[in-house]
Amino acid sequence: ISLAVAGFTQDEMEIEVERGVLTVRAKKAEDENKRKYLYQGIATRAFERKFSLADHVEITGAKLVNGLLTIELKHELPETMKPKRIEINSDSKVLEHHTNVKQAA
Hints:
1 helix
């Protein structure tokens, strides 16, 4: 997941995961000088963005580089859910077993 967050520092942002929902929040720190701008090209208003994560998705990391927040995700199925290959036996072995059982009786 990549988000453009130009104007925010790492300390002004928060990433949280709860019950399969990833939440990214950012709030600009108060400007001590209380400056007034004629024009400000980068928005500094607070935001919150939520993403629903699929089952078995884990966050492996997050980085902020040049105003772009990248959150790395990994999808890994548990062993019990991975597909299994089942070997097919030939009919001759099954028939041999049934024949031997009948002869023993």
